[in-house]
Design brief:
3-stranded antiparallel sheet, alpha/beta, 248 residues, binds zinc ion, 36% helix, 2 domains
Length: 248
């Protein structure tokens, strides 16, 4: 991490009135949250791409819930790290700040990030929604996937509930992505942490800020497709870089 890049980035943040933050798997990897991608992410020989789809849930909701129950327990053993905490504290003293995350692990929330600051673009492991009506709810109980009858149900209508996660082949919630793009369009700074910048449309958030004349600060140990348009790139991990940058 270069002192020059950190001080340049701090200068940008100090003069920014509006800030949008985009976080990805890199920030949570340091809390021990697995990515569930690639050969290391297999569960009972299934790949994430085989289970995190509406088709898989229609075919075998019990199997998909069993997998989410397992993921939920793994994540429950992880704690927010210094980067999550620094962001939550920074948001407390920045009146106009939005944190849009691609992560579903709930660690920003657990670190104390306020509800009105946070946009969970891909949903959350700790929320459910109804497969029939519009009901959504936090849900943190252990999942009992022994039979269809024991799976989470909708409180008002009794239909099967599903994880409140955006699956492969599904669109992001228009309200969420709209809020994120609105924030990006007026932001003086877009701070991009631990994301490769290839997952769309979340990756476009930084480009929107740039196109509107704002600056991009990237915190990532490696170059990403966003590095080319970044005003300042801080080459380190989230845990090293974010607290140093935010001074928390
Ligand atoms: Zn319902």
């Amino acid at each position: 991490m270069s002192d020059v890049s950190v001080s340049e980035a701090r200068t940008l943040l100090d003069s920014a009135r509006r800030i949008v933050v985009l976080t990805g798997a890199g920030i949570s990897a340091e809390s021990g949250v697995p990515t569930f991608r690639g050969s290391g992410g297999l569960w009972k020989s299934y790949r994430a791409e085989d289970l995190a789809t509406p088709e898989a849930f229609r075919r075998d909701p019990r199997l998909v819930w069993e997998w989410y129950g397992w993921r939920r327990e793994l994540v429950r053993g992880c704690a927010p790290n210094a980067a999550h905490v620094a962001l939550a504290r920074f948001a407390e003293r920045s009146p106009d700040m939005v944190i849009a995350t691609q992560n579903v692990d709930g660690l920003h929330r657990q670190a104390g990030t306020r509800e009105d600051v946070l946009i969970e673009l891909h949903g959350s492991l700790f929320r459910v929604r109804c497969t029939s009506c519009s009901w959504r709810s936090p849900h943190t109980d252990t999942i009992d996937a022994t039979s269809l009858a024991t799976l989470p149900r909708c409180a008002p209508c009794g239909a099967l509930a599903r994880p409140d996660i955006v699956w492969f082949g599904e669109s992001l919630e228009p309200a969420n992505i709209g809020r994120a793009f609105d924030a990006a369009g007026v932001a003086d700074v877009c701070l991009v942490i631990g994301t490769s910048g290839v997952v769309q449309p979340a990756a476009s958030i930084a480009s929107v800020t740039r196109a509107a004349g704002g600056s991009i600060i990237e915190v990532n140990p490696v170059d990403t497709p966003l590095t080319d348009i970044a005003t300042v790139a801080i080459r380190t991990t989230a845990v090293d870089g974010v607290p140093a940058l935010l001074g928390t």
